[in-house]
Amino acid sequence: MHHESIQSEILVTLVECYEIDPASFVTLPKQTMDSSLARGAVAELRNEGIVEEQVRGVVRLTARGYCIYRSKQLISA
Questions:
Q1: Averaged over 4-28, what is the pLDDT?
Q2: How many Cβ atoms from other residues are within 10 Å of residue 49's Cβ?
Q3: Burial annotation 16-26 (CB, 10 A radius, 16+ → b, else e)
Q4: Which runs of consecutive H residues, i.e. helices, occur in 1-77?
Q5: pTM
Q6: What's the angle, vertex CA 13, arms to CA 31 and CA 64, rounded to 5?
Q7: Buried b (16+ CB within 10 A) or exposed e, 3-13
Q8: Which of 9, 14, 20, 22 is the most exposed place for a label (fewest CB within 10 A)?
């Protein structure tokens, strides 16, 4: 899997959870977090302020991250 596709997959999951409950954290699967590419993708999203990480592999989308994601979806639609 490529870095971009892993990042997109994580974002889609987090957006779905954010729309249900913006305050809830999501525990990413162990297989995902065992991948150095996935850990790098999460770290990049965290550094950009798109996700907040409670502990390794437990993340949630920030309000800023949600706005960025939605605006990109509107542009590509």
A1: 92
A2: 12
A3: ebbeeeeeebb
A4: 3-20, 30-33, 36-47, 63-76
A5: 0.84
A6: 120
A7: eeebbeebbeb
A8: 20
Helix, strand, or coil here: 63? helix
In single-letter form, the type of residue at position 41 comes to: A
Two tokens at 65? 């991250």
Say yes or no to pLDDT of 61 above 90: yes
**Cα–Cα distance for residue pair 8/74, rounded to 1 Å:** 16
Cβ-contact 51, 25 below 8 angstroms:
no
Q: Could you give the CA distance from residue 1 to residue 60 in angstroms, rounded to a whole number?
A: 22
